[in-house]
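Page 37, continued from 36.
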């Protein structure tokens, strides 16, 4: 097989993802000044589509707030903007991105000690209920929806119910979840949900967003502003008036608008189903090859699977030989860096793309097993 030329790489990492030609063409639309009415129309269109996609039937209760920045920007904006004076956060931490929540909150000394779990364990809602009962100073609970450290789906609905029943605010980092995993935002009274364009929505990196309950944002306008750029209240106030506080990434917004149109045409439930079917193909083939998943099926997401490294081959060798064939996989993180690898199936991938990857993976694996 000849070395890959770099013209059509298939990305099997959890963002950025492969995008459609429609989305790519949107990047080339004419230049636009962000203070012109056409930009206000673009922002309003995107915000409306986000509500249509993720809180259907409850659009009047929620608002979508756009930020220029990665999904991390939206997550940090949520944490910095959600607390009145004297109140604290409780962070649920069972992975790299749960730890990132804690690191963000700790910089501002906003959190009590986190609830820490092993990276392969789902948090227990009852433990969270007990913690909230013991800590009346906690106003908000933050957790990750899809913890891509190992492809784990956390029990967000059950935790949100506990948080809401105790009169607290539930904040969800769904940067790697929205568009690829079910999430009942309105039905579970989740107050803030952070997302991004460049993962399961199949847009381009550089724009993120927060879905927020309008009533909560009206209260949060009067909370302490701990950041200028990452103040949700500042963006909310400006965007409700059809403006932005600073220059957005216009071309990326064009692509995001097109990606949301594609999502609504496909339907969120259908996209989740498509991702689930692709994940099933990957898992079935890996099982046939003797490659073991890190998580039981009940804990796995629709869009990413973590596997233990096959014996006799290093991650770097596996990665490099797959990349030479046109496919990019992802390493483990932290203490799992040398023992697992990850395959994401989010993005504009076809069944043929997935099948071609699996053939390439089998080719690499059998070659090394034959040399052992």
């Amino acid at each position: 097989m000849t070395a890959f030329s770099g013209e059509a790489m298939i990305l099997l990492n959890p963002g950025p993802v492969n995008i459609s030609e429609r989305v790519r063409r949107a990047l080339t639309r004419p230049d636009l000044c962000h203070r012109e009415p056409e930009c206000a129309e673009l922002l309003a269109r995107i915000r409306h589509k986000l509500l249509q996609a993720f809180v259907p039937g409850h659009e009047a209760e929620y608002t979508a707030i756009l930020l220029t920045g990665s999904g991390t920007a939206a997550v940090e904006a949520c944490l910095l903007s959600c607390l009145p004076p004297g109140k604290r956060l409780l962070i649920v931490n069972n992975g790299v991105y749960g730890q990132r929540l804690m690191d963000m909150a700790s910089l501002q000394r906003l959190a009590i000690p986190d609830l820490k779990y092993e990276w392969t364990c789902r948090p227990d809602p009852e433990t969270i209920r007990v913690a909230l009962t013991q800590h009346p100073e906690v106003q908000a609970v933050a957790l990750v929806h899809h913890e891509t450290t190992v492809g784990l789906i956390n029990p967000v609905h059950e935790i949100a119910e506990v948080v809401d029943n105790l009169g607290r605010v539930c904040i969800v980092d769904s940067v790697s979840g929205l568009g690829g995993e079910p999430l009942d935002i309105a039905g579970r009274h989740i107050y803030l949900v952070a997302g991004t364009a460049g993962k399961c929505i199949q847009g381009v990196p550089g724009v993120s967003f927060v879905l927020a309950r309008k009533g909560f944002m009206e209260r949060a306008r009067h909370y302490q502003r701990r950041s200028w750029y990452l103040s949700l209240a500042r963006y909310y106030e400006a965007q409700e008036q059809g403006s932005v506080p600073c220059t957005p990434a216009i071309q990326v917004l064009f692509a995001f608008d097109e990606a949301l149109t594609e999502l609504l045409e496909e339907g969120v439930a259908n996209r989740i189903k498509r991702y689930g079917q692709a994940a099933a193909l990957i898992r079935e083939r890996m099982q046939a090859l003797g490659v073991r998943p890190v998580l039981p099926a009940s804990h796995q997401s629709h869009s990413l699977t973590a596997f233990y490294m096959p014996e006799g081959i290093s991650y770097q060798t596996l990665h490099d030989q797959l990349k030479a064939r046109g496919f990019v996989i992802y390493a483990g993180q932290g203490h799992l860096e040398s023992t697992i690898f990850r395959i994401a199936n989010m993005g504009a991938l076809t069944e043929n793309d997935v099948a071609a990857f699996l053939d390439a993976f089998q080719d690499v694996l059998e070659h090394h097993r034959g040399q052992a």
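The chain has twelve helices and 14 strands. Flag for discussion at group meeting. The longest helix spans residues 268-288.
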